[in-house]
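Collaborator request, handled under Task 6.
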Amino acid sequence: MNDIRAMRNINRNLFEGVPATANALEEYDSDAAQLVREAAQHLVKARRDNDPQAMNEASNATFLAAAELLNQAGRSVYVRFPIMVAARLVELEAALLVAKAEAVDEAEGQTA
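Structure tokens returned to the collaborator:
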């Protein structure tokens, strides 16, 4: 079972006004966070290049992240929940990657 203090810490990061650099998933499970980042990178590539192989890699990393989250939850959670959470985290991480890339492009366009 998860330590309640760790869970409270996660909730605090998710729901209170913490800095944008805070990463609750990284604090909770750095292995899952790495898998989410990896899946997001593949997802961005798959969408940008219409690359089925990258989409498969994103899918595989998402399932691995879900398995890691399920493992951290003590295997007491219904299986679909961590898969849905992991998939949503990948979507959010991918959106952040795209937003950062667009911000860099925009900044470079203003300096040119």
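The cover message to the collaborator said: "Confidence is low (pLDDT under 50) at residues 11-15. The chain has five helices and no strands. Please let us know whether this matches your experimental observations."
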